[in-house]
Every structure is written in C-alpha cells, then in structure tokens.
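<instruction>
Derive structure tokens from the sequence
<data>
Labelled lines for chain and fold
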Amino acid sequence: MNLNTVKEHLPYLEDDLIKEILKTSDKVNIPKNTVILKKGEYVKVLPIPLSGYIKVLHQQEIKDLLLYYIQEGESCIMSFSAGLENGKSKVMAIAGEDTTAIIISIENVKLWLKKYPSINTLFYKLYNQRYQELLTTINDIVFLKLDERVYEYLRNKLNVSKTNSLKLKHREIAEDLGSSREVITRVLKKLEIENKIDVKSGIIKIL
C-alpha cells in the first residue's frame, strides 16, 4: 500500500493525511460474510474499502434490515458518530463480498479532525449521502410493493458489485430485506415471469 494507491481511492484527502494513514493503519483482506462490527459493540476502528463493499444493517429481534452499502473510498457515518462519542454501535457491518480495506483507529481520526479539514469534508459528505439513502430505504418500505423492493434491491446490488449478474442465494436477499426465503423465491419467480429478470443456475440478471 502506497500513497498513490490510497490517493486513487481517497482523492479528496491531503497528501500529508494520507501519509499518516499509511503509517498508522493496516490494510486487511476481509472474506465475504465476515461480521466486522456487531450492534452494541464499542467502535474502535473505521474500515474504508479499497475493493469490495460492506453492508450496514439494522439488527432487529426477528429480522435484520439492510440500510446502505459502504463502497470503495467510503466509511460508515454511524460508526464514525458512535466512535467519536465513545458510544456503542447501533448497526451491524458485514463484508458483502471479499473486501480489501484500510482499518483506521478512531483515536487517530479524532486527532486528524483537528488537523486536516478534508476529513471533516469527507464525513459531512457521507452524512448527507447516508441520510438520502435512509430516506430512500424508508420510502421503499412504506410505499413500494415487495416485488418492486426486490427489483430495486437487485439493481442497487449490481451497481455496488460492478457486475452484470449476481450469484445470490434467496436467503441472502431475504435477510437483507427483512423477509423470508419462501416469500423471496415467489417474488423472484414473479419477476422472471414478467421478464424483468433472468435466473439460471442461481445467477440473476436484470433484463
């Protein structure tokens, strides 16, 4: 990991800050479905993906609900907020696929906030972005039928995965949307009949 590699993913940060990140942070490989942060844990570090992505979910007693994705060059504003306040996380973070990330200490972030203006800009930008995504999630839950939610979910997943097809288990879709595998199976079949998606050997394509 060198300055140019990190700057490619974090172009809005000063070179001096990137140099400090390189000195004090680790680059790690996180296998798919690895739990990075559990609800109720104290936030000690912030991951910034260089490749792959991280899912952020709201844990409920019965079902979990996907809130948003953390993509390359981003971080979790809710974890950031909890870390600054020495509070417990209100969300769970899981690697959505095999992911390479920089792991930054929250204590270093606190120091850098006073020293480097760009890191403030980063988190203000992320706050606005996540707020809009959460509004979209609420709107989808309240106003969209489940088949519409599943279709939008697949479109977003394709965009995040940067691919034209998805190898997804029905159980994974159900977990992200707070539904059941049986219901999702019926919805996918309906979308396939309507020629909105194509499903072959567990591979889903949007038509």
